[in-house]
Each structure stands twice: as structure tokens, then as C-alpha cells.
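Late entry, written up from scratch paper. The run itself happened at the end of the previous shift, but nothing got recorded in the book at the time, so transcribing now.
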Amino acid sequence: MQIYFGSLPHVPKYWGAEIQKLEGHDKWVTAVAFSPDGKTAVSASWDKTIRLWDVATGDEGPVLVGHDDTVSAVAFSPDGQTVLSGSWDSTVRLCDAATGGKNRKFEGHNNVVSAIAFSPDGKTVVSGSYDKTVRLWDIAKGEEKHMFEGHDGRVNAVAFSPDGKTVASGSDDKTVRLWDAVTGEEIRTLVGHDDQVTAVVFSPDSKVVVSGSGDKTVRLWDTVTGEEIRTLVGHENTVSAIAFSPDGKTVLSGSWDTTIRLWDAGKAGEIQKLVGHDYLVSAVAFSPDGKMVISGSWDTTVRLWNVAMGEKMRRPAGHNDIVETVVFSPDGKTVVSESYDKMIRLWDTEKGEEKREFEGRNEHFGGAIVFSQDSKILVSGSYDGTVTLWDAANGRKMQTLVGHDDHVTAVAFSLDGKAVVSGSGDKTIRLWDAVTGGNIHTLVGHNDQVSEVVFSPDGTTVVSGSDDKTVRLWDIAKGEEKRKFEGHSERISAVAFSPDGKTVASGSDDKTVRLWDAVTGEELRTLVGHDDDITAVAFSPDGKTVVSGSRDKTVRVWDAATGEARHKHLTPRSVFRTDFSCDGNYLETDIGRLDLVVAPTAHRAPGTETLSTILLESSWVRHGGADFLWLPHEYRGYSSAVFDLFLVIGQVSGAVSFFSFKSWCNKSSKQGFSRPE
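Output as recorded:
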């Protein structure tokens, strides 16, 4: 890794609790379990398969097949040699865990088998079914021992008590029932849930049974008296899975709200929340030593979690909510971040450490934030219609510029730092004196929200794009409109000046990029090729090349003189901000760095990533076309920016992480990125 990094990333000691993501099932995962020795995990799925996994390496082992429909439940025998499964094909099966060979099939249920469990001695199996019955099976004889009837709805969950004397079942009838495993008699009915009971489990000492329900609660019951001990509240949707830790101190729950929670069984307090699945959690289990948790989800993945590590985690230093924006200063020494917590923070790029928190709170939320060219001042636009100037050295608020009647959508500094321009949802553009805060001009002409504003290289002109489908040029000295460019059929999403100021590029939701003569106002050419909205445009340093980003997840490179498409680069997600490297060979975007000089060949497909390509995907930093650095869920990027040696990621956890790569080149100017709505 040191081959590619200039220095190791600045990240907290404990990244997250998630250890492995096990992928192999191609449909929803319904059930998971650990082997008694904790070395193997088993999972079941709607894809009708049962898969075994090596817990240490995450490697997939044997795939067990045989059921004719969804496998809804799975368990290891106490000796770890046999896998038990229940299915929507109404059968219960025993398979050899090593070979996958079929040992026995139990038939008797006339509807979906929803839940199964081994007795502690491994001689008996219990199954629950949508046919409203619970059945006990003698493994040696392959015969049904008892059928428990009493539930008024389908049975969703069953469990054996650790002492082997009692069976618990949960049902759509909102009850938990306890049954004598020897006589088959019902002992008691536990009433309290307001919706279906989806999961049941006994404590290690058999004194407590825990249930999960569609009423979003986890409830603990006294098995002797049948009284409810406590209710655990916190999930925001159905509690679909329950487990007890081996020491009996912790209750584990999985939910349709996609989270996994650990609870103190004695104090009824939530200990920890594990986030990572992208769809409802359907199954959870503790490892035999209680140090790991396994979960299955309808996102088709099985995940392993280190509970001990999770307990050591603390909220990372930084913001207290999603980091919405990260921006590099032009000199690359500083990064500013904005968050849903309404705070602005400044970071040292080299050290990856927070320098200061800005005074007051900012109502930014999706507006804009930009550094002056000397990196000394920050300007931010807000949803409350104000524009604020900040001292980047001490975080002090210098000026609040008031005038817009709607949210500020875009801001920019003039190259000399003396003026600021802002665009707004109120359809106006305002020019401000950066020193006094005075409103120099209000530019009126657009008939809809102003989406983009940019100064010309000589600072005499501003170009603006609007939802009214027009691009306009404005004379700064006079405060007048110079010309209007019409031709796009949808809103304008991006504008840029060529380095010599003679050409304007505009991108639109009409999927085209258009080049305009800034002097005559004539359309020079239309660049066609994207399959979705244009999100970004930029000129190369020599003005000969135009690049565009789109919601079609491509970056396209165009010849500015002819309009010819040179290259197409496939990207993992849409690019919303672009800038060229100092030598013009690389494009530095909000998702990473693209090599622009590599053309497709007979041996390289269009958009192929090279060794110099650095890209940020949802869960990976990619290098040279390969997954390179995995990011735990808490540290995945919501916003990001690139400056020469550095990739900075603003994360959903509120943290900001810095990655330094081997030398690229120096550059004096860079823009940042704010994730659009």
C-alpha cells in the first residue's frame, strides 16, 4: 500500500465494527448461524441455496442445494457436523456440513416451514410453519414426536430452551407460547405485543425468553411466571431477528429499518447500533465466544461484525452529522467542510487535523462555498438568502451580505478577490464588494432560478446559467446584460469560460454541451453524446479541450475546435465538479482523478482505468481499475474533493478523512464539491 500512498491515511484507530461482507447469494438472505466452534457460518436464501463461509477469511465453502423453494431457516447441530434447514417447500432437511450430502428429510407440514431449531442434545428438531403448528421430530427415527396446536396465526419463530425442557414459538396472532418439550402440552401464553411476533430466543439459563415483533419492540419475559420483564424500544420498523449473547448479558436484534442493535439485557439500554446493510435485516446471531455477530439481509449479503471493536468506537472528531461539502483552498493547504450539523470546519491538509471551527452556525445546506484565490477568505451561500464572508485564518465571520429573497445557489470570487458574485432562486445575480460588503449591482434578466455564476479570467464579465434555459453575459462595470445565449431546450446546469475568455461552454439537462463565442454571442457548436443531464463542464489550460460530466456516469473529452469526441471515461457515479491538473493530462473531480491522455486501443476498452486513476466509489477507493482501499459504512464518502497529492472525503459519520498519494504535480487553483440535490 505504501507504493501508492505518499503517507498512510489519517483515520481513527477503529474504523468500524464491520469485518466482512460475504457475497454469493443472488437473492434475499433469510437466515444465518455460526457453527459451535465459531469457525464457520451458514446462510440461507430465497435463491434456494444454503452457503457455508469461512469466518476467518470470508471465503465461500460448499453450497448446499436440495430444497425446491426459498430456504427460510437454517441451523447447525450441536456437534457442528449437520446443517438443518426449513423451506417454503414445506420440508425440513438435514445435510452433512462437510459434504453437503442429504441425511434426512422431514415431511408433515402443509405450508411454509418458517423456523427450525435443534434441541441441546442434538436428538430432536423443532419446526414452526405457516400452517399454524409447531412440530417436534425424532432425528434418529425420522418421525414426528409431537404436534403443538394453539396459535391462531402462522408460526414465524421457534426456539429450544438451553435445558431442553421447553419450546417457545412466536406467531402472527401476536403471542409467544411456551410448550413442554416432553409432553407436548402448552405451558403458558405470553401476551403483550401489538403486532405479529417474528422472533424468539431463550437466555442461556433458560429463565428468560426474548421476542421481537412487528410492533418495533423487543420484549423480555419471565419463563416461570410468564410476566413481561421489560420492553426495549429503538427500532423504527419490524424487529425481524433476535439473539442472546452466550453470557446472557446482551440481546441482539435485527430490523426492517436496516440496523442491528445490541441491548443491555439487565438495564434495558441500547449499547450499540450497527449500520451497513442496504435493505432490511432478516437474521442475526452471536458467535460462540460472543465477540462477533453475523447478520443476513435482503440486500443479498451476509456481514460479520466485531462487537468488541464496536464497543471501543467513539464518534470521530469532526462534525456531528453528514458532511455535505468539502472544498480545497487554492493553495491546497486547507480544506473547509460543511455539514448538516450547520457547522463549518477548517482542516490542515498535510496533517489531516482540524484547525478550527468557524464562529456561529451556517444555514448552508446545499448552497455553495468557495475560497478567494489567496486562500484567505471564504464565501458561502445559504438557503436563507444570505451570503457570508469568513476569515479563513481564524474562522471569524467578516460580513453577512443581505439582499437575495430566496436561497443562494452559486457564489464565486473575482480573481483579485475584491468582488463576489452570487446567484439565487430569486432569479437575480448580485455583485458584492468583498471588503465593505456593499451591493455593487443587482443583475436582473433571468426568468427562473440562477443555477451557475462564473467570472471571466479578466474579471470584467460574469457568465450565468439559469433554469430558464438561457446563458447570459454581464458587464461588471456597467451592471448590464451584454448578451443572451439561447439554444438549450432544458435548464442550464454548468457554465465555464475558456482560459482566454473568448469562449463560453454550457451544459444542460438537454444532454448537450454548447460552445458560444463570448464576443459575438454566436453558437459555435453543439457537443452531443451524453445520455443524461450534463452536470459539469471545464476547459483545459490551453483551451483546446473541453470535458463534460453527466448523470449518465461518464466523463467525455471533446476537441474544442472541431467538437469531435475524443474519449469517453466510465465513472462509478456522476461527476459534478471537474478541474484539470497542472499539465492538463489529468482530470481531478469530486470522485477522484482520471487519466485523460490514455486513448482506447485494441487492448484497452473505452473508459479503462489506468494505474494513475484514483476513484472514489460508495465503499471503495479504486486505484488503477481495482478495488484498493475498503471504507466501512461510517466512513463512506458523501462529499469529496481532489487536490494534487490529496483525496479528501467528507463522510456520513461526520468525519473528514485525508488520503495522500505519490507525487502528481503542483497546481495553484482548485475548486471543491457540494453534493447536489
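The mean pLDDT is 84.
(Scratch paper discarded after transcription.)
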